[in-house]
Each structure stands twice: as structure tokens, then as C-alpha cells.
Amino acid sequence: MASPSYPAIVAPLLPLTERLLLHHFTPSVFPPSILGSAPVIEFATFYGIEPVELVVRNTGKFQRVLEEAAGRGEGDVRDYLGGVWGEVIEDIAKGGAEEGKGRALRLCLGWTSKEAHMKFRETQLFKDNVGLLRDGVGSAEVYHVAFKAVREV
């Protein structure tokens, strides 16, 4: 980010967003192929995680619950396509604020659509396990990004 070439890399992204908040995370699996294959990714960032080990362990448990339910073809979880999560390398705060920076964790879950994810949030499976994503977390943000294939003409 400190290199002279960095502004040229970031410049094309600025018109696409109100603000650009960049950070890095160490993915739980590498390569994190779900990020390039799912039509919709749910990006959840958990801020002020403490103790870090608890949040990391619980996030892994939550993803395993999804993986097992999807493997059994259970209801709305069949629209879950996979996920990756990891601890954020930089100390960050919600909204990019300078004040309150601390440890964070990023969770990326692939879904067939945003609607499929929102429908899953109404299930008993979600209600029974969402507490895993709240314990030890100061605050959170969740966004959905729908990816589209781009063809060269």
C-alpha cells in the first residue's frame, strides 16, 4: 500500500464505492476458491473480538454446522455453497474509524442468491447456531456482493 504503484491500482475502484476500506485476512482454507465461484458472497466482519481464540473456534463451528447440514441436503441450507473465514491482519474498527481499532475476523459465505441467505436466516438451524457468531464479538457488519461474469468483446 505504500508503493508508488498503489494509487494506480486503487483509482479505478474509487468511483464504484462511497468509501474504500481495505484490509487483509488469513483464510481458513487456501486458495479460498468460494470467493471466485459463488454467485453471491455474504461478507461478515466481526469487530472487537475478545478473546480471539473463542471467536475463531466458534466461527469454525458455525461453518461446520452449515457444511454438515448442506451435505445432508437439509432445507434452505442446500443453497449454501461453501465458505472461508479468518482473522484480519490489521487492527480495524467498524466503518473505518481510527478510534477503537482492534482485532477482527472476516467470514465469507457463498450462497446461490442473497434471497437464499435471507431465507436461511429464518430457519431453526440458524437460530440455534447464530449465537456462535455473537459470543466475544463487539460489533459486526454484513454485506452481500453479487458477482457477475464479465466477457471481453
CATH class: Alpha Beta
What is the percent of helical residues?
25-40%
- Cα shape: globular
The number of distinct β-strands equals 4
What topology, given as strand order, has the largest sheet?
Answer: 2-3-1-4
Count of separate DSSP helical elements:
5
Distance between the termini: 32 Å
Instruction: Report the CATH topology name.
Output: Alpha-Beta Plaits
Please report which band the strand proportion falls in: under 5%, 5-15%, 15-25%, 25-35%, 35-45% or over 45%: 15-25%
Structural category: alpha+beta
List low-pLDDT spans: none
Secondary-structure element series: HHEHEEHHE
Number of domains: 1
Largest beta-sheet details: 4 strands, antiparallel
Radius of gyration, in Å, reads 17 Å
Please, what is the average pLDDT?
A: 89
- Give the CATH architecture: 2-Layer Sandwich
